[in-house]
Each structure stands twice: as C-alpha cells, then as structure tokens.
Write a structure and sequence with these properties.
Blueprint: E1 4-5, E2 12-13, H1 17-20, E3 37-46, E4 52-61, E5 66-68, E6 72-74, E7 81-89, E8 95-104
Antiparallel strand pairs: 1-2, 3-4, 4-7, 5-6, 7-8
Length: 110
C-alpha cells in the first residue's frame, strides 16, 4: 500500500489514518498573521407549511484596511462580501422559491 503525507500534520497517511485524525485537532501552527476571514454558515428550517428553507450566509473581511487601487477601500473588519440566500424546497427537493441579499460585494464589472 502506498503512503502519502498530510500537509497539515506531516505524518504518514495510510488507510487507517483517517480514523486517527480529527479536523478539530490540528497540530500547533507556525507563527503567522491573520490576513483574511471567510465565514460561511448554513441553516435548515422545516416550515409550518411542510416546505423547507435552507439559508446560507457568506461574510469576508480582513483584519486591516484593504484597498484595490482605483476601485475601492475597506476599513478593517468591514465586509468585503456579505451575501445571503434562502432556498425554499419541497419534500422532493424541487425548488419553490429563492431569495437573495447582497448588501456588500467587492467588485462588479459587467
């Protein structure tokens, strides 16, 4: 059986390794500085009318001011992207309705 190396842990990967590692147990990291945060959340709701709402939210920000020269400037922690979507489906997963909100987008070139 061939072995590969997991770049995060630097331990040999075998067919049994996945049972030994958990994403919540990353090894200590080298000294570093946070440069970007992208948070994505999903929530599922069963509605009183029998339909399902699946909502997702994406938020990007940087810990320091950020600029795209000639385009836009963002303050530290200001949303570069702030987008939400609600997908309503029935029990057969047929889309019934979609709502979107995009209060903050980075660059739009049409």
């Amino acid at each position: 059986m061939s072995e590969s190396t997991n770049a995060h842990t630097r331990i040999p990967m075998t067919s049994n390794t996945s049972a030994q590692l958990s994403p919540a147990q990353l090894p200590s990291a080298q000294a570093r500085t946070l440069s970007h945060t992208r948070a994505v959340t999903y929530h599922g709701y069963r509605r009183d009318d029998g339909l399902w709402d699946i909502e997702a939210h994406l938020h990007d920000s940087k810990p320091a001011p950020y600029e795209v020269p000639g385009e836009k400037k963002w303050a530290a922690h200001e949303a570069i992207h702030d987008m939400s979507i609600r997908l309503t489906v029935n029990a057969q997963l047929v889309v019934q309705h979609i709502d979107v909100a995009m209060p903050s987008l980075s660059l739009i070139h049409i």
